[in-house]
């Protein structure tokens, strides 16, 4: 009897994946729960385990194919001990099944595709009111919210599209250009597509500005040098810079809660928890795992958590829960040698802190020119919610905490 190997539920708002690697070939046997195929989503990779012990009877989607939740990836001959000879159909399985794959290739387009018939996706009350007032058919609107939810902004984009002058119709998408002799065409991974989509969404939606400052890293560096050996001996992890910046950011967020908030339609959601995303370079690109309740963690606990998340990000072992729900993000481009940058917001967050490299620079101290280790800091923020005064003061508070780290310990 054949058992279907299906694409499992991949997490909230994730409806499609790309077949990465088949761990077994047709005819090979395996035990129950043994990984059979790797699926790549726009957030994480997922190994699909064998539901039963048996032999891989057929493969319905080859590596690189796009699949939807519930699609049958292959068939398993339950309990079969010997290899099954692949048929001609199995040797080229993609052709008959490819018709089932929706034409949409982005997460935003895939969510509405799950709806059956003329049923509309979830709609926010504000979006529904705006649509009714402007005669917009919600079935023609693509939602960008969780699970394809249609937001007010989605409806407004449809209104703007309909109001566009007839003399300037949208240009039809151009066909892919021919690849040159010394060029190579490679399909974007789901993660890279999602990163590109979210970054562009942030630029199109938020009124994004960036403010800068510089911080003298001398006191933190001296503290690390003094206590590093004892810190490692007691906690089994090195004392780095990121834990200081996380603690400083949390204290500053408590003073400026709008930078720890998000805009939802015409409302502002203030968050009284501090889940700090730390951008790291993973195996498949930039990912932002989240330190939950960072305000409750000691420096040692922060360093252990940051080290663990970074290690699993490079091994592509992060879970969906660890990549979602952050309230504020810190990105350290300094580890790659960046002197200064303007980080892009991670929607729906309203602030992101950019750290950079530490360089010995001449600065004035007490009327004297001295050489000090200086780092440039950048805070990008959503000006719709955060005023320039709050953004500048927020960054100054972080500067104060880092230049005098004892203030973090005595809460002043």
How would you describe this structure to a colleague?
With 412 residues, the protein is α+β, with helices and mostly antiparallel strands. Helices cover 29% and strands 25% of the residues. The protein folds into 2 domains: 2-101, RNA polymerase II/Efflux pump adaptor protein, barrel-sandwich hybrid domain (OB fold (Dihydrolipoamide Acetyltransferase, E2P)), CATH 2.40.50; 206-410, Chloramphenicol acetyltransferase-like domain (Chloramphenicol Acetyltransferase), CATH 3.30.559. Residues 81-119 have low confidence and may be disordered. The protein has helices spanning 88-91, 94-97, 107-113, 125-133, 152-163, 190-205, 218-235, 242-255, 299-314, 388-403, 406-410, and strands spanning 2-6, 16-22, 29-30, 35-40, 45-49, 54-59, 66-68, 72-78, 208-216, 261-264, 267-270, 276-282, 285-287, 290-291, 328-332, 351-355, 358-365, 368-382.
List the uncertain runs: 81-119
| Helix content class | 25-40%
How large is the share of residues in beta strands?
Answer: 25-35%
From the alpha carbons, calculate the radius of gyration and give it in angstroms: 25 Å
**Strand count:** 18
User: How far apart, in Å, are the first and last alpha carbons?
Assistant: 69 Å
Q: Spell out the CATH superfamily of the largest domain.
A: Chloramphenicol acetyltransferase-like domain
Q: How many domains make up the coordinates?
A: 2
Structural class from helices and strands? Answer: alpha+beta
Mean pLDDT: 83
Set out the fold topology:
Elements: E1 2-6, E2 16-22, E3 29-30, E4 35-40, E5 45-49, E6 54-59, E7 66-68, E8 72-78, H1 88-91, H2 94-97, H3 107-113, H4 125-133, H5 152-163, H6 190-205, E9 208-216, H7 218-235, H8 242-255, E10 261-264, E11 267-270, E12 276-282, E13 285-287, E14 290-291, H9 299-314, E15 328-332, E16 351-355, E17 358-365, E18 368-382, H10 388-403, H11 406-410
Parallel strand pairs: 12-15, 15-16
Antiparallel strand pairs: 1-8, 2-4, 2-7, 3-6, 4-5, 6-8, 9-18, 10-11, 12-13, 12-14, 16-18, 17-18
């Amino acid at each position: 009897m054949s058992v279907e190997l299906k694409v499992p539920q991949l997490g909230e708002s994730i409806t499609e994946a790309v077949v990465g690697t088949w761990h077994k070939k047709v005819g090979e046997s395996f035990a129950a729960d043994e990984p059979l195929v790797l699926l790549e989503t726009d957030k994480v990779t997922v190994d699909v385990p064998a539901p039963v012990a048996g032999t891989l009877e057929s493969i319905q989607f080859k590596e690189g194919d796009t699949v939807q939740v519930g699609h049958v990836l292959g068939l398993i001959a339950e309990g079969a001990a010997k290899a099954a000879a692949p048929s001609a159909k199995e040797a080229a399985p993609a052709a008959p099944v490819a018709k089932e794959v929706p034409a949409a290739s982005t997460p935003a387009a895939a969510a509405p595709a799950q709806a059956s018939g003329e049923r509309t996706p979830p709609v926010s009350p504000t979006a529904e009111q705006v649509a009714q007032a402007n005669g917009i058919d919600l079935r023609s609107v693509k939602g960008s919210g969780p699970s394809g939810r249609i937001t007010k902004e989605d409806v407004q984009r449809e209104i703007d599209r309909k109001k566009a002058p007839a003399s300037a119709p949208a240009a039809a998408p151009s066909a892919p250009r021919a690849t040159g002799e010394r060029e190579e065409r490679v399909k974007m991974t789901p993660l890279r597509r999602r990163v590109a989509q979210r970054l562009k969404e942030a630029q199109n939606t938020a009124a994004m500005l960036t403010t800068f400052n510089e911080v003298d890293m001398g006191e933190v560096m001296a503290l690390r040098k003094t206590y590093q050996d004892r810190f490692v001996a007691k906690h089994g992890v090195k004392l780095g810079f990121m834990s200081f910046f996380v603690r400083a950011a949390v204290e500053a967020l408590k003073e400026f809660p709008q930078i720890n908030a998000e805009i939802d339609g015409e409302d502002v959601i203030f968050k009284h928890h501090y889940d700090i995303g730390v951008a790291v370079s993973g195996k498949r690109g930039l990912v932002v795992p989240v330190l939950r309740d960072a305000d409750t963690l000691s420096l040692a606990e922060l360093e252990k958590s940051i080290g663990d998340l970074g290690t699993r990000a490079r091994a592509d072992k992060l879970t969906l829960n660890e990549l979602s729900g952050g309230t504020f993000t810190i990105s350290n481009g300094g580890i790659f040698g960046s002197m200064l940058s303007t980080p892009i917001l991670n929607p729906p967050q309203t602030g992101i802190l950019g750290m950079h490299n530490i360089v010995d620079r001449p600065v004035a101290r007490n009327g004297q020119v001295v050489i000090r280790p200086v780092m440039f800091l950048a805070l990008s923020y959503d000006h719709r919610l955060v005023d320039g005064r709050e953004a500048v003061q927020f960054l100054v508070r972080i500067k104060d905490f880092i230049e005098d780290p004892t203030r973090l310990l005595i809460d002043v």
